[in-house]
Amino acid sequence: MRSHEKTTDTDKRRLRVWLRLLRVSRSIEGELRERLRVQYKSTLPRFDVLAALYRQGEGLKMSELSSALMVSNGNVTGIIERLVGEEMVERTPIPNDRRAMKVRLTKKGRQDFAEMAEVHQGWISELLEGISAEDADLVCGILDIQTTAVKPVGGGK
Length: 157
Description:
mainly alpha; three-stranded antiparallel sheet; 3 strands; globular
């Protein structure tokens, strides 16, 4: 919509949807952050790093991990340093590339994260208990359609 076009009722409703999505997302994220802090002395970014590494059993280059999480290498480096110190993650050099390291979960890291992920899934289910399976499918379908409809400004990905 261009700035000179009149705002329609549909435009206002879409804005309300966006604001509600944002409010619900922030509320759930805040609750998850607190639960991770209290129960696991962890952070949401740390959980996200562990989850990405768990999905990629063979490990990831630091640059791949940063890309997967859509954050800078600097944001991930500190988390990885702490996880290495806790023996949750191990780093290995990549042959023929002295600057790159591959990171992967240790056996302890995989076991600890698997437990944490199961608890996390229970928290999500609890926090969204008012949504039926059918409604969850409907909302996901709508959001999937919307995700493909978003066109980045400037021709980005």
